Amino acid sequence: MRVSEVMTPDPTTIRPEQSVRAALELMQEIDARHIPVARGRTLVGIISDRDLRELTLPALLKFSEPEVAQQQLDTPVSEIMRGDTLAVNSEDELSEAVDLMLDQKVGALPVLDDGTGELVGILSYVDVLRVCQDLL
Q: What does pTM read for this prediction?
């Protein structure tokens, strides 16, 4: 089975210059834990709810310093995203992608077109679980 058969196509993305606040709002709106960071269809990174928690939670706990929390929320995504993003190609075997997710302990992988290298999808653990559910 190929990644392209399981992935979520045309994922919602965020631009690197957008704020952490925008990323938090977007994740909540689309109920996602990972959002690719892209310029057009060119992948430049990925941001996860874990990345956002590590940045915002300490600042939000300092209620005596609300300006610190506001500064954190105004931080561009590019400053906290993972730029050395692992990715898979759409025609890769699903089993290889799952091995990579398990080995690297990541919950999602951006999916790139084999020919152009453009972002075409995202493969999350939820996508993989749906395949497993169909087998049961």
A: 0.87
